[in-house]
Amino acid sequence: MPLSHAVLALLAEGPSHGYELKSRFEAAIGPQWGGLNIGHLYQILDRLVRDGHVTRSHVTQNDRPDKTLYELTGGGAEELSSWVATPHVRASGFRDEMFLKLLAATRLGAGALSDYTSAQRQACLSDLAGLTRLRRENAADPLVALLVDAAIAHTKADLQVIDGAERRLASLAEQARPVPAAGAAEAGGEAPGATAVP
């Protein structure tokens, strides 16, 4: 599990407690990834302890509650090294909600396809503007800048797909059957393919 390995990578720098790991993860990866839920982090740490990749010890503090310190084991270091040496391969196909929306828009007709691609194009351009700003703000941190560059590349790829979608899907959209408005049957209209009763 990638987050488990990211935690192992942070612990490779030395022992740490939960909230410190959360802060270090968020600082290392930057805002593009999003925050790390502390409850989820503690579940990960429990699993790493159970698997023998991390040890847990309690440190007494005079003026505050005791804190739990986590430390990488030799087995954890081996697991981390093995994981890093293995290339990432997308195992579950290419799932993206944008393609589901293109499927639906195509089935709703040329107007719906045009409306969706226009709205999605605008969203991509807006994302690119925000990411470009974020890239300038994080230029000094090479890891965060690289993650933002990856987000920019993905967004540009989405924009290319959207730019070609209307042209490539036009014939499918033209074959779409009109979808009756909600309540049309109740208002006296007939559902597509309905047969009148004599």
Strand order of the largest sheet: 1-2
Total beta strand runs: 2
| H/E element sequence | HHHEEHHHH
Helix count, DSSP H or I runs of 4 or more residues? 7
Envelope shape? elongated
| Rg, Å, rounded | 26 Å
| pLDDT averaged over residues | 85
Low-pLDDT sequence parts: 191-198
Distance between the termini: 64 Å
State which percent range the strand residues make up.
Answer: 5-15%
Report the structural category. Answer: mainly alpha
Major sheet attributes: 2 strands, antiparallel
Fraction of residues in helix: 55-70%
Describe the protein.
With 198 residues, the protein is mainly alpha-helical. It is 61% helix and 6% strand. It is built from seven helices and two strands. It has a two-stranded antiparallel sheet. It is elongated, with a radius of gyration of 26 Å.
Task: Describe the secondary-structure layout.
Layout: H1 2-11, H2 18-29, H3 38-50, E1 54-59, E2 67-72, H4 74-85, H5 97-108, H6 110-137, H7 142-174
Antiparallel strand pairs: 1-2
Helix pairs in contact: 5-6, 5-7, 6-7
Briefly summarize what is shown:
This protein is mainly α and 198 residues long. It contains 7 helices and 2 strands. Helix content is 61%, strand content 6%.
